[in-house]
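Problem 12. The chain below contains 221 residues. Write out its predicted structure in token notation.
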Amino acid sequence: MNATRRYALSTLAVFAVVIAVIRILYVLHEQTWLGPYIPLLVAVVLIYVPVVITKWHGEGLSYLDRSRQQWWVSVKLALLVGVILLPPFLLLNHFWQMLVYGLNFHPRYVIGFAWVLVDQLFLVAVPEEIFFRGWLQSRLNRVYPAKWKLFGVPLGWSWLLTAALFAVAHSLVTYHWWHFAIFFPALVFGWMREKTGTIMGSSLFHCFCNLTAYWISFNYS
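Solution.
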């Protein structure tokens, strides 16, 4: 077995172990006193597993934004992508809710939205982006180098594979029939990661997407 194949298999093995651990944590969610702490434990796993592995191999965390300029570039990209993609998504979703589910839009005040924002950013979006786009996509880039460009950004099979694994991981942890659709925003997250070289932009847009889904669930009935 050559070194590249071993590298790929070891990466996928870590992915499998991490998702298995998270699945066990979610099983314990409603069965033990740990329930309220499970989201925090999941975030810790997603953040520290790649950090420990990266440090073990003497590699740097190059996918983290380190300067004020990098942060500003990431914020601007997240806002730009949000402005371009979220309005048409909301319009399509509106017709989907009406025509498929027979629901209508009834704007409501979402109680505790600020806490949901903090939760989605620091316990969901950032940890998931560190693990999937920061660590997993970076490692797979070494196995599958970029072969084409999308809007000027070099991409390869690692981009598609990471998005697919991201969608599959959700179903392996807690299954919902619509999880296949997660593949599509994951492509955007992956593109953003390659565009900036870091994960803050994709983390912010990831958070925007989750908050949008949360807001939709409260405003259609």
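Discussion. Residues 43 and 127 are 5 Å apart (CA to CA). Students who got a different answer should revisit the alignment rule from Section 12.3.
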